[in-house]
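Recall from the previous chapter that SMILES is a line notation for molecules. Here it describes pyridoxal-5'-phosphate.
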Amino acid sequence: MVEAGPGLSSRKCLRVEVGRVSTSRKGGRRAMEVRASSSSNGGKKSSRSIETRLVHLSEKLDDPFDSVAPPLYQTATFNQPGATDFGAYDYSRSGNPTRTLLENQMADIESADRAFAFASGMAAIATVMRLVKPGECVLAGNDIYGGTQRFLGKIAPAKQGLEVKHVDMTNIDEVKAALADAEGPKIKLVLVESPTNPRLEVCDIAAISRIAKDHGAIVCVDNSIMAPIFQRPIDLGADISMTSATKFIAGHSDVTGGILSVVGKDLCEEIYFHQNAEGNMMSPFECWLSLRGLKTMALRMEKQAANAERIAAYLQSHPLVTKVNYAGLADHPGSGIHASQASSGGSIISFETGSVEVSRRIVEDTKLFKITVSFGSVTSLISMPCYMSHASVPAEIRKERGLVDDLVRISAGIESIDDLIADLEEAFASAEAALGGRTTMSTTM
Ligand SMILES: Cc1ncc(COP(=O)(O)O)c(C=O)c1O
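With both inputs in hand, we obtain:
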């Protein structure tokens, strides 16, 4: 059984035991649904820091060679001990030892009862939506990832019969009012992003979790921007912490995946039921790459955040920049709340120039920042969310929410900060030259 992580001492530990190969052809199946053992963790707390626990897996497989890198079980199915004895693993959709290692590692660092690895962050979010029944309501923020908005706008209501309500989640009174609204549909799920993508707004995870619990709603925090290195939503009271593994967990732009870390036996069982029934799990190889990514996640994220701080300061001082959004800035409106729930400003920054054309030139003229829809890679990345990651959000909704077309999002990588600033400097100079003395440029592209 996995060693308990901090925060687990008062809870039943429900994690999956890593399968042991049965040599006998006798015995009944421990179905995956019941492989979540309900044994107590014995009140044991790991005294080791998260950095150490990331490098040293919380548990090992029964590996005769004791390999340092975890074994990759690239198999769809397993030879059963007998026709009625399914063994520890029978089919990789239901469970795979490499996936179990990743899931237990994530549960360990997030203080969760269990974690579940999915084919993408969106597959993980879609599974969370399965917790809501037709007629029940999902409460979400106004500034959210474009793919989540697409799901909430086009799939949840029309295809699943869910109600969806948006509020300004940075405003706790709006959250309170929505949950207390006796006239409206019952809010079953509160979906929180903090900091938000792409405007890096900060929501009070602990306060939202408390209010939601009072009203019997489940809280899921999309923690993709902070990842469990900088922010651990379960410790703040959330029921589910969702992280797109595509970003910081894998960290090298070579994996697509998503993780749900979950608290509570019933929720764990329901999520596992859907993962198995719908087959949206992460593949063994992606799990193996994610396990490798986890080992360096703390190191990468600290360097990326240090680079982001310098880039944010540079942007704040540049005359072409009209607004900088970075959760680590002292003058960020949510800086106090962010500091109380996260240990770093992270490595994602967005900024406005007031001109789509200026922004486009900056984005296209950088050499070290790759133009991509994603973030969280060792490589620095740059994008224009309204034309890329958030293009699926209807223009009128973007306008209503103040998501401006000239917004640029940066994901700082691990390169030398001097090189990154020099690269930005050249791109800004080129935009300035193109401006040719005018103070504004066309706002369309
Ligand atoms: C905040 C946030 N949540 C969820 C997702 C979805 O993750 P994935 O692309 O792995 O499906 C993304 C993707 O960019 C994201 O930015």
